[in-house]
Amino acid sequence: MPNIKSAEKRVKVIEKKTLENKAVKSKILTYTKKFKTAVAQGDAQVAEVAYRDVVSLLDKAVADNVIHANCANRRKANYAKLLETVKK
Q1: What is the spatial distance between Cα 80 and Cα 15, in angstroms, rounded to a whole number?
Q2: Residue 46 and residue 2 in contact, taking contact as beta carbons nearer than 8 Å
Q3: What is the dihedral angle through the alpha carbons of 9, 15, 17, 21, rounded to the nearest 10 degrees?
Q4: How far is CA 59 from CA 12, 38, 44, 51, 75, in A?
Q5: pTM of the predicted structure, to 2 decimals
Q6: What secondary structure, in 3-state letters, does the chain show?
Q7: CA count, 13 A, side-chain hemisphere, 8
Q8: What is the mean pLDDT of each run of 10 residues along the chain (88 residues)?
């Protein structure tokens, strides 16, 4: 337990930010599952809409420093490949 008042505040702030970051990551996983389900079913239109949603969430997460930019770019590239397989 911190002894200094500023350290106590930092603990509170970190706990709050951790919850916010977990919420963002959970939302990304939820939309990713929707996208992968649409790909597995072969529904190109639903997959394309879900792809746009996932990419948007990933870009927002990068802007808020929730995930690293390279991680988001790698995921977007992999999802784009999956989307192309459904379109063909």
Answers
A1: 34
A2: no
A3: 170
A4: 27, 21, 22, 12, 11
A5: 0.88
A6: CCCCHHHHHHHHHHHHHHHHHHHHHHHHHHHHHHHHHHHHHCCHHHHHHHHHHHHHHHHHHHHCCCCCHHHHHHHHHHHHHHHHHHHC
A7: 3
A8: 92 97 98 96 94 97 97 98 92
Q: What is the pLDDT of residue 88?
A: 81
Burial degree of 28 (CB within 10 A; 0-12, 13-18, 19+): buried
The answer to whether 80 and 51 have CB atoms below 8 angstroms apart is: yes
Record the tokens describing residue 33, joined without a space: 């599952």
- Name the token pair of 22: 């977990």
